[in-house]
Write a structure and sequence with these properties.
mainly alpha, proton-transporting ATP synthase activity, rotational mechanism, ATP_synth_F0_suH
């Protein structure tokens, strides 16, 4: 029996996984071509007057003249105070935001409170 085991052991190759200590370096051809093109690129030198016609020349704005006060300021202020304001463009002021539906005018405080305390009217749905 021992001789049979020895024959089987020598006849069947062992299935072991062999690891290599030295790995083979794979070269990437596309990467090498890309790097070679990058290294060989030389941009064209720009002409010193390349900006002419593209960029406008800077001109400092004109200095603003100082406004002069009227010579007779006191009399102008007095006429302004004496004048009546023009109310034609004024917006009419509402006295109350709530309007009474019965009278068509603004509600008093008592009417408004009564309206709030009143039971709400339920509308029948169809």
């Amino acid at each position: 029996m021992a001789s049979l085991a020895r024959i089987v052991r020598t006849a069947v190759p062992r299935s072991t996984r062999a690891f290599s200590a030295a790995t083979v370096a794979r070269k990437d051809i596309v990467q090498d071509l890309y790097l070679a093109q990058l290294k060989s690129y030389k941009p064209k030198p720009q002409v010193q007057d390349a900006h002419v016609g593209i960029v406008r020349e800077y001109k400092a704005p004109a200095v603003a003249a100082a406004t002069a006060l009227p010579s007779d300021l006191a009399s102008e202020l007095a006429t302004y105070d004496a004048s009546q304001p023009d109310l034609a463009d004024a917006v009419p002021v509402k006295t109350s935001a709530h309007v009474d539906a019965q009278h068509g005018g603004p509600m008093t405080a008592e009417e408004f409170l009564e309206m709030l305390e009143a039971d709400p009217v339920e509308v029948a749905h169809h």
